[in-house]
Give the backbone structure.
Amino acid sequence: MTIALVWFRQNLRLKDNPPLYFACEQADAVQAAYLYSDVPTYARPRGGASRWALHQALNSLSKRIESTFENQSLYVEKTDNVLASLLRLVEATGASVVYTEKRWEQGERLLEAKLKDALASRGVELKCYNASLLQAASAGCKADGTPYLVFTPYWKAQVKGFQENLRPVLELPRHMPPLQTPLPTTSVDTIELMPKIAWHTDMQAEWNLSEAGGQVLLDRFLHQAISNYKDDRNLPAVEGTSRLSPYLHFGVMSVTDIFKQALELKQSNLGASANASIETFLSELGWREFAHHLLYFHPQMPSKPLKASFEAFPWQADDALLTAWQSGQTGYPLVDAGMRELWSRGWMHNRVRMVVGSLLVKHFLQPWQAGESWFWDTLIDADVASNAMGWQWISGCGADASPYFRVFNPIMQSQKFDCEGAYIRQWVPELAKVPTEHLHAPWELGEHELKYYGVVLGETYPFPQVEHPFGRKRALEALASLKT
Ligand SMILES: Cc1cc2nc3c(=O)[nH]c(=O)nc-3n(C[C@H](O)[C@H](O)[C@H](O)COP(=O)(O)OP(=O)(O)OC[C@H]3O[C@@H](n4cnc5c(N)ncnc54)[C@H](O)[C@@H]3O)c2cc1C
């Protein structure tokens, strides 16, 4: 009799879940388990929004296991020592094989290596599957065996393989035979991920972090939005992107499944423009792969610039500026809209992520790590690889970065990508009555006219904390000082 322990790590779904699928196919009895640890031994402790999102995703998984399979439940445990807990579970269940998924962060790889040795010495097998990415993060290196540092050549070299070698999407396991004496049923509440103060009500209303919730978003995106993705993806007031990032981060949805469905749509030939949009979408999934490729070979990426020269960058850390940015009080309406969307939804549109990031590191001269940490704490899709890559890209210190000297103009970005001001009006209601042509730079209106529209600068809405021409010049001087 083969008993299998399925260790869920970051792919919290039933559909297209290789370790779960193969355990159910191959073993006589299966126990599913999830272990949560706050201790930064192997992984970076999650931020507040991410803990909330994990709670939702685990709850959905747990309920789905119970409702889909007879006499089955997910065992969850909070632990200070994941390795010791796993070994204890192996002993308690009598498992002879542990099925799990690969993770690519350095600490998680170390944990897996230690587990493999510890299990081997007990005569227990470890079966590990890639469930999070289209290909192993370590794969796809250049012909000389070195990793890619620039996205375009990386993508050109991988895209054909991604399309042609896509593994089959696995359906739900047909059955999940329970142990004779299963582990006790434990509630996700016991790992205490929910905030003690209720700041999460808007997020609760916004997201349904379950496989069913993800499928609704995917269907909407594939049937309504994907064919205009190339243009609409830059417009924060339009639902032009998939909003699947939290589902991908927690593996509530499978990247292989999403990639395959988008590819099939492209093959159905919806016309040149729609096909170009689908290709752009596929390449965004490629950016996600690339982020993990970079992190695999540069584990220090979340804290250290990939371009070493940037370690000497003359940042001017300033708590008041950082707080103004975090709370959406910079005086730049698009930036403030984005920061407030982040606080409310735990998510922010990609174009706006770039604009708010640029303002922080360039006009405000705050170290990019401060922005990275804030995103880490407030995003529900907070991902070590994608977040670090995004911040290094914006700051010009990444391997494949937007050069530091390219300083986004926060007013022009606003005029271009929120030209009607709908996004700003949604998140910065105190400016709602300002006519659209002045909404992107309200300080250009005279005091009396502003008052007519209900705005008193410095009282109801801030002046720009750092003026654009000054901020731009100062950022470029800081860069020049770095070169000398
Ligand atoms: C400063 C900064 C920080 C970021 N931090 C994160 C993060 O912590 N987690 C995260 O998932 N994404 C991060 N991104 C990337 C991107 O902003 C989000 O993935 C995207 O906004 C999610 O929205 P969506 O699901 O509608 O994306 P879509 O446009 O629908 O794209 C589909 C999927 O592709 C992936 N993707 C798209 N763009 C990128 C990208 N630039 N880098 C990596 N993957 C991408 C995501 O998984 C996304 O869900 C960051 C970007 C920046 C500029």
